[in-house]
Amino acid sequence: MVKEGDKAPEFEAPDTSLQMRTLSEFKGSPVVLAFFPGAFTSVCTKELCTFRDSMANFNKFSAKVIGLSVDAPFSLKEFAKQNNLKFDLLSDSTRDISKKYGALHENFVNVKNLTASKRSVFVIDKNGIIKYAWVSEDPGKEPDYKKIEEVVSQLN
């Protein structure tokens, strides 16, 4: 599992338009990497809509918000459309990114072999260093949004 002070692991994953995206393309800007268990679930919808409603605060600091889940890009596209999400959503369909970040539930909700991203947030500075890391074992627990905004505000 990665921790504060580590270099953020590079990744490549498809977005909702099936374009391959990498973490390195966001270098030079702070990044809020928000892993979530599943599109269209109540807590995940609330979380991503909270990020959506906070975009003005992130934009002030040129921070990029990226949502990641193991959902297919097609599901994420519809999820973004229904919730008016204007930031990137990436599909970790291989589960590799969630594993690299220590953010993968192996037997999600006690179902054998069901996997999902753990609700997690990593704030990465413009040089690719993790400045904030939060990983929850409880999929019903939301992150500390104020703390995330505070960390982002200190990166400039």
Could you characterize what this model shows?
The strands form 3 sheets. The protein has a 5-stranded mixed β-sheet with strand order 5-4-3-8-9. The protein is 28% helix and 23% strand. The chain has one domain: Glutaredoxin. With 156 residues, it is an alpha/beta fold. The model has no long low-confidence stretch (mean pLDDT 96).
Short structural summary:
This protein is 28% helix and 23% strand. It is built from five helices and nine strands; from the N terminus they run βββααβαβαββββα.
List the helices and strands and how they pair.
Blueprint: E1 12-14, E2 20-22, E3 31-35, H1 42-53, H2 55-60, E4 64-69, H3 73-83, E5 88-91, H4 96-100, E6 104-105, E7 116-117, E8 120-124, E9 130-135, H5 145-153
Parallel strand pairs: 3-4, 4-5
Antiparallel strand pairs: 1-2, 3-8, 6-7, 8-9
Note the main attributes of this structure.
about 160 residues, Glutaredoxin, two-stranded antiparallel ribbon, 5 helices, alpha/beta, 5-stranded mixed sheet
Category by helix and strand content = alpha/beta
Counting DSSP E segments of at least 2 residues, the number of strands comes to: 9
Describe the largest sheet. Answer: 5 strands, mixed
User: Mean pLDDT across all residues, rounded?
Assistant: 96
